[in-house]
Structure formats: structure tokens, C-alpha cells
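Subject: Ribokinase structure
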Amino acid sequence: MKIALFSHCAIDTIMIGDSKYEQIGGAACYGGITARQFKFDVDLVTKFGSDFPYKQYLTDNKLNFENAQSEKGTTRFSINIEGADRTLKLENQCEPIEYAKINADGFLVSPIFHEISSETLKEIKKDSNFLLIDPQGFLRRTDSEKNVVLEDTDIDLSQVSVIKVNPEEALHLTGSSTEESLKILQKRGVEHAILTNKTEVSMLVNDQIYSITLPNKKIYDTTGVGDIFCSAFCCTMLKEKDFVWALCFAGGAAQAALESKDVGLLKIPKKGAVENNASYFYNLMKFRSI
């Protein structure tokens, strides 16, 4: 099976306490390599500049990419992490992504900073039978000091199979940061609406809320965990056709990544660790009607 993943590759400078790391980043990398752990073929639709030193890394991990080289520099962020909270600063922005027709079982759209236009999203929808959106990059803006902030943004969510938001993203999409936002997203066309609030994960399907709680352990580097979650959900949903298992595997992947205490892409978990956590979450899944 194959997924097509639309997102910029990035170079992240991650600061945790007194430690500083430069890492390959972006949803294209975190989500793409996670999908490879699930034995999916992956077509990356991405852009990066000549300053991107990891092309061979992508090839070694069997991620397919064409026409990715840009004359502009790679998108870069500096990321300061304190516990579960992080602040981002945009250091450079690469050119937008253009869509070319792709045959894939599922499409994962996860921009990191405005690389996907509304017109490109419209073109993606024409070819997609299963579309998962992480809207973070649609909502992001920068202030006068290049700090990344979120602003209210209207996105056409018709024909969207799954959306994953955190409370701040939900607030800027719907005006609500609570589970009420899931109902608003559902009314706008989303089939499976997911709200991740640190360790609490809730999903609305029809009139049922399904929820899991990640064990409350010390968190280290959270960069890319949302991308790992989305990719695991997408792959499991496509393979198993079961949204409950998909939620458990997504939560299991996020938990395994956090438990690794690794930085950057090193935290992407092996499938065995994800499966063990998924079984744990399946037995503790809660659900209720709304």
C-alpha cells in the first residue's frame, strides 16, 4: 500500500535546557519514516534547498521524492522545548509545493508553514479517497520577531476523512478549544475529528466520542510526535479499516516515541513497540455518546 505525504522537509535547531541539536525535520520526514515502519510505500511531495544535507538519508529509508530540489533554501525552524510546551521561530521558508497527479491509497496533508495553498489542497482532494489533514501549517503566521503564532483561518474541510488538532489549533479553526470543536469540524465535512490535548486524545465519529489517555510520564522532545501520530493513524486506518484500532495505534506510536527520550527522528518507534502500546490502549478505550 502507498501513502502520498504533502509537507516540507525542514532543518530544525532544537534547544532543550542547555542542549542544542540540529536535526532533519518536518512532517515529510517524521510521517514518511513512520509509514515505512508500517511497510507502506511513501511518495513525498516536498521541497528543500541545496543546503539540505539529508537527501541520501531519505533515499536510504526508501522514501520516494521527485522534483523536490528548490533554488530557495530549506525551511528552517529554531525550537525551544520546555516540558510539553515548545516555541517556534521561523528562520527560513522554502518555495510552495505544487501538485502532480499521484496514485496512492491515502493522502496525508501536513504543511509546516504555508507550503500548500488552498488551490493545491483542492487538487489533492480530486484524487483522494482517504485524506488526513494536520492543519498546523495552514494556521501559522509569524510576528515581527519571526516567532510562530496561530491565527484564525478558514479551511475547506469538505471531503476530509480525518483531521487532527490540538486545543489551540481547534480554537483558531472553530472558535472552541474543547470537544465542542469536534462537532463543529464534523459539521464542516470531517468524518473523523481528533483532538489531542497533551496526554488526552479524543475522537468524534458520528455521535460517539472515543478517548484514550497516554500514561503521564516525563516528556523530553515532543517535536514530530504529532506527525508520527497522524502517519500511524493513516496507515492503520487504510490497512485495517477500523478507526478504533487506528486511534490505538496512533496513540501507541506517540507514546512509544515519547518513552524513547530520543531527539528528532531517532524517536520514531519500531512497529513492535507501537503494537504493544496499541493493545494496551484498546483495552482501556473509553467511549460515550454526545
